[in-house]
C-alpha cells in the first residue's frame, strides 16, 4: 500500500525544471524542491543581477540561499527509481519546428499547451498545473499555446486585446474605448472575426473560382501545346515523306534525262556521220566535175565546149539564200533531201532571198467586211543581174489580195510580210513581146474576198511559205 501511495504522488518528486525525478534534491526557503544541478544552473544565469527567485512561485531572495541535500526526498526518489515506474516524457512532448516552447522549462523544453495573456508566458502540461495552483484564486486569461504574446496585449494600457474597432480597423482593449477610440464602432474580437471571416470566405471562394478558371486555362493550354506538338510532328513527318518522294522523283528524272541525252547524242552522232559521208561524196563529185570543167576549158572545139557546158548545168540560174550563199535549184533540192531545211555550207535555217524588185506592202481592215485587205505596189524599174534580162526595163504591178479577219488570217498576214521582206512574193518574168513584167511567184493569193473563204486556202498559203523556209 505504501508503494501505491508513492505511485499516486510521484509528480511531487519531479524537478519542475528538468521534469525528471529529483537528482540530489534540495529544498529552497520557499519550500519548493529542485535538482541541485538544475537550480544551481538557473541561479548561475541570474548571478550577475544579484537577484534570485523560485522558478515556480517567483519568490525572491536578497541573498543566494545555501543549498543542502534533502535526505528524505532523496530516499523517496531512490524508492521510485527501484519501482521502475519512472519514464522520460515521450519524444513527441518535446518542441519541434513550429511548436511553442514552455517558458518555464530549462534544458530541453517541452511543448506548451496553453498561453496566459496575464503572465505573458506559455506552459507545458506540468508547469500549467503549477500555474493554476499558484493562481487558483485569480482568473487568468488562458488560450491555446501561441507565440508572440506581447502582440495580444494593449501596449498603452497593458490589457488584453478583446475588442475590435471597425472605425480604425484594429484590436483594442476595453480602456481604449474610453479614450482614443471613444464613440467608434466597436465589437468583440469574436464578432469581428466572424464578420471578417465571412468576407474572407467570399474572397476565398473568388480565389478558388479564379484558381479553377486558371487551372482550366492551364489544362486547355497544355492540350493546345500537345495538339501543336502533334501537329508539328505530323507536319515534319509529312515534309519528310514529301521530300523523300521528291528526291526519288528527281533521281528518276535525272536518270531519264541522262538516258535521253545519251540517246540524243547517239542519234546526233549517227546523223552527223551520215552527213559527213554525204558531204564527202558531194565533195568527191564536185571535184570530179571541177576536173571535167578544167579539162573542158582548155578544149579548142567550140561545139564540144558548148554541148558539154550545157550538160554540166553551168548556166542554170542560182537561188540566193538569206545567209548569202547561192545554189542552183537542183543542188539545193538534193541538199534539202539529205540535210533538211539547212544551208549546205553554214547549216543555218534555210531561208530564201528572192529577186523581187523594190516595192511596198500595206494592209487594212475595210468597214463592213470581216476581211484583211493587202495592197502591193512595185513601180516600174530596171532589171538586175538576178533578173532574166539584166539592164532592161520591167513593168511594175499594183495588186490587192484578201485574207479572212481571224487569228489564223492575222498569222498568215505576218508570214506574207516576212516573205515580202525576203523578196519572195513577186518575180520578174520575161515576155516575148514588150517589156518584161512583175508577176506573183507560186505563193497563192486571193484577188477577191470570196476566194479567201475557200476551204484549206490558208493551209495552201502556209504550205507554199513553208517550202520557202517561212513558218
Describe the structure.
Among the domains are: 2-88, Herpes Virus-1; 153-184; 354-467, Enolase-like, domain 1. It is built from 9 helices and 22 strands. The chain has helices spanning 2-8, 36-46, 71-83, 125-134, 189-297, 302-312, 329-339, 407-421, 457-467; strands at residues 25-27, 33-35, 52-53, 60-61, 114-116, 121-123, 142-144, 153-154, 159-160, 163-165, 170-172, 186-188, 318-321, 326-328, 352-353, 360-364, 371-378, 381-382, 393-395, 397-404, 426-429, 436-440. The strands form 8 sheets. A 4-stranded mixed beta sheet has the order 18-19-22-21, with no helix packed on it. A 3-stranded antiparallel beta sheet has the order 6-5-7. A 3-stranded antiparallel beta sheet has the order 11-10-12. Residues 1-9 have low confidence and may be disordered.
Topology diagram in text:
Layout (H helix, E strand, L loop, with lengths): L1 H7 L16 E3 L5 E3 H11 L5 E2 L6 E2 L9 H13 L30 E3 L4 E3 L1 H10 L7 E3 L8 E2 L4 E2 L2 E3 L4 E3 L13 E3 H109 L4 H11 L5 E4 L4 E3 H11 L12 E2 L6 E5 L6 E8 L2 E2 L10 E3 L1 E8 L2 H15 L4 E4 L6 E5 L16 H11 L4
Parallel strand pairs: 19-22
Antiparallel strand pairs: 1-2, 3-4, 5-6, 5-7, 8-9, 10-11, 10-12, 13-14, 13-15, 16-17, 17-20, 18-19, 21-22
Helix pairs in contact: 5-6, 8-9
Family: Belongs to the Deltex family.
GO molecular function: zinc ion binding
InterPro entries: Deltex_C (IPR039396), Deltex_C_sf (IPR039399), E3_ubiq-ligase_TRIM/RNF (IPR051051), TRIM8/14/16/25/29/45/65_CC (IPR058030), Znf_B-box (IPR000315), Znf_RING (IPR001841), Znf_RING/FYVE/PHD (IPR013083), Znf_RING_CS (IPR017907)
